[in-house]
Amino acid sequence: WNSMPKLVASCRKIAMDSLGEEAVFLVLSGADEFVMDEWPSYRPEIASVDAGEESNSLSSKDRAATFLGRRLIYSHHIISKVKRSDIRSLASQLRLTGYMKIGWPGLLLVEGLEEDCIEFYDAIRPWSWQYLVVRGEQQERISSSALATLDKARKFVEFREVDDMSIVAQHCRDAGLEALFRTSMKVYEDNQPVAGERGDDNLADDLPYGALVLVDHMNNPKGYRKWLRKTKQQVSGGGLWLMIKQSYPLDDYSKRPTILVALVGDDNECVQQFLKRWRTSRVDVDSKGKPCLERQMKVLVEGELTSHTGDEDVDWAKADAEESVNLSHKQLLGLVERIGGASWRDAVT
pTM for this structure? Predict the structure, then answer.
């Protein structure tokens, strides 16, 4: 206990040196350094390890290396092409096999050495996620960590990206891992949802929320579209996706185009906040060139995207790009359907 006053004094000095600044992290870091560097000098018995015990026990890494591990990781969604590329790269680096189901919801099922499964989740957890959690895990004893032994024990031969949850479900069923897959729906060994949590019937809670808006006209189209893109970032911080497209009747650019704006968010809050700001901001100019409110926009459809086909076919980077704002009517209908399903397409036609 003689070391405790020294630790307190060390932390107090750091706090006093940081007067007027945020010091919590500095104090905690200083305490951590003290425990690592100074504590053993006050408590020699902590620093010493019985040689006999050390020789008869495996390190945590050695213990992990004797197990094949599996992790089922559930995410609100997996959309970003950059994130998907990074996940594939990390899985390859760690020699993990399994699946990445993209879209809403997202699912990562990885298999490999237990220590590599742990490292995989530790690596992706700090990334930007709406929601990320390990729903299920398995460990299977293997005779050695040799690659041949590991590959023989695997249930998945490669790491695949898919957009259909049923593909993952069927493979798990065929491989005898149905119980692991069912944890994605919070259904465990007794086949019942965890108390207070949702099961398969409530997966709609994880569906995206969207709105399809018809804009009558834009007197200052470039300025108007710039405002929409800027407001998307201000409202959502990255959790809202935007489509701005227009089509001219029979490709006749002398006529007024059909202008559609689609909003897709993680939840209804960001979409409705965007719509409220849209209705109350001066987003265009009138016939005299003066800033004016939007009074002729019409929300064609709004709600959870129960018919959402996934975003693997939607390039959101191009969906609101200025250089690709014009589409043919057929192209526009196809894009709208990929985002919101048949109900969105029918709302346009």
Answer: 0.48
